[in-house]
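**Polypeptide and fold**
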Amino acid sequence: GPGWRSIVYLMGCNFRCRWCSSPQTFEQHPVLMTFGNLEKYPHRAAACCKRGAVSVSGRKSNTDRSLCSDCTSMECAAFCIDGSREVAGYTTTVEDVLSEVGEFKKFSRNYGATLSGGEPTLQWNFYIELLKGFKSCGCNTAVETNGSSVNLVESAEWVDLFIIDIKHIDDAKHVELTGCSNANVLSNVRELAKRSHTVWVRIPLIPGINDGENLSETARFLKSINNGNLSVEILGYHRLGEYKWEAVGKEYPMKDTAQPSERDVANARGVFRDQGINVIVT
């Protein structure tokens, strides 16, 4: 989002994008992350675990996640002193979040807040109350969303900017890539454009997966609904989140996928500019 702002990440996502750089937010509960390259005291982690989920082999610990999946104490991380274990996600309240962000708002009259994730709309009640709270505090509000919620447009009253991903314009391909249909995504983008609400459409550019004709079809779709309120941002695929997949005990599924070149990204931007769509360069 624009200007000085805080980002609030909410846990839980209904999509399973293979290139996701935040797999620790897939679930709607705290998730253990382990970083073997940092570990210095494996026996300490094993001794802290009352479930026997942590064992030691040589100088490294091994975690049986089937035994710790519903653990609430996460003591192996709570008593970790070498940075090799941490917990992603915690329980909080709307009031606590507003109070924390309020400390930063003191530095800018036009301070803003962005709700992200995961997919923030999955925690609908918390999402709405947080938006209302930010608006009452005079904050500019933005939402980073996959756009799949059937209720998304209902929150427009409290959202200054929607940042919505379109992963692929073809529904069957979208299901293959994310596990979910894009029907609600496109419907929400269309409805928000109809209402002249400000929308940034973000497109992750992944060579061989959603480039080529997909970009042209997406540009034509956006041109057909654009009331001057739509912008597009091309996000070149990167592998900066690969280590997080290992940290949550999952195999990274995109190891053989090349990253787009600067020229690839520039050409993709040109596809949308040619259709008269404003392009954001970050």
Summary: The chain has a mean pLDDT of 95. Residues 124-136 form the longest helix (13 residues). DSSP finds ten helices and eleven strands in the chain. The two ends are 11 Å apart (CA to CA).
